[in-house]
Amino acid sequence: MTEKEMLKITVEEFARVQKYMILTEDKESAAYKEMKGRYIELKVILTTSGVNITELDIIKE
Question: Apex CA 34: angle with CA 37 and CA 49, to 5°?
Fold first, then answer.
């Protein structure tokens, strides 16, 4: 897998996780906490890869 393919997949997953987080009503649920953990991981990966996530980050947590 090339770096571009990896970044594409990571950006898509980052967007998907954020959509799920927005749809979750109970922010204290175990599911939401797991999504938030993955959101943070993806945010770190994208940032360290040099991707400007300002436009992509809807949650901004």
Answer: 30
